[in-house]
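User: Hi! I have a protein structure encoded as tokens and I'd like to know what sequence might fold into it. I'm fairly new to this, so please keep things simple.
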């Protein structure tokens, strides 16, 4: 019902920057929280950052001050600007979107995940 397309991952040296994008499309009336998660090899998926429809943000302690999450509601797109990258940031990054639509006068909610994009920080 909802498709997410991520872009922007890649290989970067320590101290470098990357910008991730995630565009949502499909059967969407509105979007609540949008977020980014990551999963490193052998570790559980963890929240990196999230942003509500009102613009409130939440960050993992490990990325606070280095990463910035933002969204463009007109484009149903969420971004993650990652600065001062460290080798410990290496992981697959996943976009997550909580959206809803109205169908037959009822509200239906969706929790959707992107396909993941690899971020590798290495010299």
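Assistant: Happy to help. Inverse folding works backwards from shape to sequence: for each of the 123 positions I chose a residue that suits the local structure. Here it is:
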């Amino acid at each position: 019902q909802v498709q997410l397309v991520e872009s922007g991952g890649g290989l970067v040296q320590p101290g470098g920057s990357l910008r991730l994008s995630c565009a949502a499309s499909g059967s969407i009336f509105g979007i609540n929280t949008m977020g980014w998660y990551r999963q490193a090899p052998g570790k559980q998926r963890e929240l990196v950052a999230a942003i509500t429809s009102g613009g409130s943000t939440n960050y993992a302690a490990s990325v606070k001050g280095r990463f910035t999450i933002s969204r463009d509601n007109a484009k149903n797109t969420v971004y993650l600007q990652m600065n001062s990258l460290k080798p410990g940031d290496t992981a697959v990054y996943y976009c997550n979107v909580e959206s809803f639509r109205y169908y037959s006068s009822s509200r239906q909610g969706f929790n959707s995940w992107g396909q993941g994009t690899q971020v590798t920080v290495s010299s």
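A useful reference point when you look it over: The mean pLDDT is 96. Feel free to ask if any position seems puzzling.
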